[in-house]
Amino acid sequence: MSDGATTGERSGFRRVILKISGEGFASEGRQGITMASVVDLAEQIAGAARSGVQIVVVPGGGNILRGAQFTAGSTAIQPATAHYMGMLATVINGLALQDALESLGMETRLASAIRMENVAEPYIRRRIDRHLQKGRIVIVAGGTGRPFVTTDTAAAQAALEFHADVFLKATKVDGVFSDDPVRNPHAVLFGHLTYDEYLAQNLRVLDKEAVTKCGEHQMPILVFNFRKRGNIERAVRGEPVGTRIGSPRQGATPAVS
Ligand code: UDP
Predict the structure, then answer these.
(1) Pocket perturbation via mutation, ligand 1, pick of 70, 87, 207 by most ligand atoms within 8 A of CB
(2) Threshold 0.90, pTM exceeds
């Protein structure tokens, strides 16, 4: 892992994991997938990739289905089945993003943690690493390939496995707040949190499992809002945006959304 924002001549990171919440693939406040949202994401990711940063994109699937929510209140469908359905949702998003990125002239590969050779490569670590070295944007769909976790955990694992400089979590809110900003107008946006501070406060924007994993390996996390145009590029360049979760820092860090 490098120190981050100022390596080599280029400012910014060398390699990043970019987790995009499923909501990024849908219109604001809606379920499903829309062309405009996919194209918008692709433009932002392409802009970031053109600066030379190696990018692994981990799409979520919550715009289509989240296993835990889908089975709540009924036993007709087994929880594990619903989680696999959620994983397949991430492949739908991944397929869309791949084409949209390629329509912008980017070279991409789609790998799936669930075998699906007709549409995606199998997830093979060394192969993905090679794609990244060749400058291809790699979309890793299918989460971890196993039920009962989320794509946050898949992204955290990928960050460690591929020696990323940072785990970037693009979501629909500006970062980590002290409380739900929709219900509590006094909720405060944090500029920086340690892993322990995040875990102790029972905050929900990012899975605890993912934060724990990153904390064990000192993998920095940045949580930011993908709906603010340019934020993905800012985050990839290492500019201050959203909330940083990492090791303790000297001095106060103002929040930038
Ligand atoms: N999922 C899973 N294992 C994984 C990743 C995802 O079972 O490794 C399922 C889980 O049900 C999850 C759904 O796929 O709710 C969609 O992923 P996620 O909730 O992470 O999407 P996001 O909230 O980022 O849109």
Answers:
(1) 87
(2) yes
